[in-house]
Amino acid sequence: MMRMRLRTNGKCEDDLRDPAQSNRRSGNRVQETMVDSVPFRSLVEPGQWVRHPDRPEWGDGQVQSAVGPRITVNFEHQGKVLINAALVDLDILG
Fold first, then answer.
1. Residue 63: which residues within 8 A CB-CB, separation 6 or more?
2. Is 17 helix (H, G, I), strand (E, B) or coil?
3. How far apart are CA 11 and CA 66, in angstroms?
């Protein structure tokens, strides 16, 4: 894993210094996160039909796009929803 500094302006930079120190010097708000060196790979592809396991009332949905862990699904009774596949395991329908 690699330690990255995420600045509020959207840029990232490697930083091995103490983030609290650099935060005080620069005045930027800094958020630390651990980033895996392995990219996220979802089994869901555009065009597939899925169901949200915790939201059966949404009905079946068709995957519109899948970019990294972000999956956009158009559900029958909920409309278009952006889902974080790192947090939700969608059920793939036959």
1. 44, 45, 46, 47, 48, 49, 50, 71, 72, 73
2. coil
3. 23
Q: What would the pLDDT profile of 3-16 be if each residue is shown by its tens digit?
A: 444 444 444 444 44
pLDDT band of 94, cuts 50, 70, 90: confident
Task: Determine contact, residues 59/74, Cβ cutoff 8 Å.
Answer: no
Cα 12 to Cα 76: distance, rounded to the nearest angstrom:
38
From residue 72, give the alpha-carbon distance in Å to each of 36, 42, 62, 66.
23, 12, 9, 6
- Cα–Cα distance measured from residue 67 to residue 60, given in angstroms and rounded to the nearest whole number: 20
* Strand-pair partners of 67: 70
